[in-house]
Model the fold of this input.
Amino acid sequence: MKFKMAEKSLFAMLLRSPWWVSFLVVGLIVLAAGALLPKEYFVVGALAGFPIFVVGCIAAWKQLRAPNPARVAEMLDAVATMPWRTFADTLAAAWTREGYAVERLPGNGAADLSLAQGGRTTLVCARRWKAATHGVEPLRELHTAMQAWESQGGVYVATHGQLSDNARIFARDHGIVVLQGDAVAVLLLKQR
Done:
């Protein structure tokens, strides 16, 4: 069973914040425990900050391993100038580095790549990566291809533009991951 953290929970917000914010909160908890609790309960009160300390360590680890924002912007600029074949080859190489067996799918269908790993197949639609707006129709086509190929998942790649609200809802309801903007650049920069 996979648990998903609520987006507006304290821990989720701290994970998205700079790492030092968590340590600042821990410091405030320790100060409050020292000021408000009797000495014999100080340690118990101070330990209330331990889960937040752990979140701070996780955030620091993730942020230290994340690519530099300048490199992400540079990669997005490079992707914007790539022809389709180069972009598809770059995506295939990135997913290969991630441990997937990548297969280019023939024709101009709804799916461009097939990713296989651990008996699970995922179809990727990346042909419309430069579109200014992304509606629900290409996602419907990808979903139809997923059913035809008996695929367990789908990925829609969109480096530019915005997804319509209907497209976002359709993707969520049909198990399609939308890989947008910075996430594409991060995938392409991993282990490079």
Summary: Residues 19-36 form the longest helix (18 residues). The CA atoms of residues 134 and 163 lie 5 Å apart. The chain has two domains: 10-65, 69-189. The chain has a mean pLDDT of 88.
